[in-house]
């Protein structure tokens, strides 16, 4: 895997791909990452999975899973948050022994949260936007997956978007493209962000023009009217850029979330999941 230069871009991709220890290992060694989060034992609601052939992903067979809250069933007209996975992962990382979001969703429901579904799909490693090859994981979400969710009875008039790492960037990017009329909330966890094309991981964008077209830095106004939450661990290589991104919002639109001890890993993401799902659910209420 190629890395960008020695700046934040190279470090960020190394964190995502697990290739270099970097900032996360240093903070972990110093005991600065905080307590790890754990998947709760709450019994989840139904899960439905499948595959379809994606035109947007140039004929790739993509997997997907929908997680329903307890007491609901496939076909129920629930609002839905689309979950975008990180680099070198797929939709299954959102559930099961990895992030375990179906258990956190059940926990939120048990605490009186607004019932909603979570739906994840395989986006490949193309950073959730159109690439020079013609592959477009963003269009997969908006033009194929969301209509499929609607056909299964879910209420997709205004969706939530939630993602981590590459998917955190993707959630912000797609929310900006769709706008407040289509997006109820966006949660970006440890988003893969860079200030300049020269800093970005080489796999993330097809050069400076693609970065200028598809980057989210400096485009905070595209999220006007959308409730935004951004979380990032202070031991994460992406933390400095995430702080700058959050600082770029107007005071009246300052995102929820924040920065606390944590690394670019599942231990931190599991710890943040309850608050993030509560945030998304409250915006559907």
From TrEMBL:
The record's section on Pfam families has: Esterase
Query: Which of UniProt's keywords are assigned here?
Result: Hydrolase
InterPro entries (alphabetical):
AB_hydrolase_fold, Esterase-like, Mycobacterial_A85_antigen
Gene3D superfamilies according to UniProt: alpha/beta hydrolase (3.40.50.1820)
Domain of life of the organism encoding this protein: Bacteria
Q: Which residues form a coiled coil?
A: none
Q: Name one GO molecular function term.
A: hydrolase activity
State whether keyword Ribonucleoprotein applies: no
UniProt entry tagged with the keyword Hydrolase = yes
Q: Could you identify this protein by its name?
A: Alpha/beta hydrolase
Its source organism is: Frondihabitans peucedani
Q: What's the source species' lineage?
A: Bacteria, Bacillati, Actinomycetota, Actinomycetes, Micrococcales
């Amino acid at each position: 895997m190629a890395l960008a230069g020695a700046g934040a871009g190279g470090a960020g991709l190394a964190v995502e791909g697990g290739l270099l220890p970097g900032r996360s290992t240093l903070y972990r060694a110093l005991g600065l990452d905080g307590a790890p989060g754990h998947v709760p034992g709450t019994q989840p609601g139904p899960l439905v999975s499948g595959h379809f052939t994606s035109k947007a992903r140039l004929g790739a067979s993509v997997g997907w899973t929908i997680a329903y809250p307890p007491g609901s069933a496939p076909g129920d007209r629930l609002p839905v948050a689309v979950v975008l996975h990180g680099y070198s992962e797929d939709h299954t990382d959102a559930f099961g022994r990895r992030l375990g979001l179906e258990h956190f969703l059940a926990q939120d429901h048990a605490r009186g949260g607004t019932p909603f579904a979570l739906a994840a799909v395989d986006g490949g490693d193309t950073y959730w936007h159109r690439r020079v090859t013609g592959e477009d994981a963003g269009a997969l979400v908006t033009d194929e997956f969301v209509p499929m969710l609607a056909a299964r009875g879910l209420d997709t008039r205004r969706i939530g978007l939630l993602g981590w790492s590459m998917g955190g960037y993707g959630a912000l990017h797609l929310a900006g493209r769709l706008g407040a009329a289509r997006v109820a909330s966006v949660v970006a966890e440890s988003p893969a962000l860079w200030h300049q094309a020269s800093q970005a991981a080489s796999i993330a964008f097809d050069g400076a023009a693609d970065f200028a077209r598809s980057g989210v830095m400096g485009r905070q106004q595209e999220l006007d009217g959308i409730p935004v939450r951004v979380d990032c661990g202070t031991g994460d290589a992406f933390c400095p850029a995430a702080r700058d991104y959050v600082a770029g919002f107007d005071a009246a639109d300052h995102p929820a979330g924040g920065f606390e001890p944590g690394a670019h890993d599942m231990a931190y993401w599991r710890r943040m999941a309850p608050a993030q799902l509560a945030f998304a659910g409250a915006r559907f209420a």
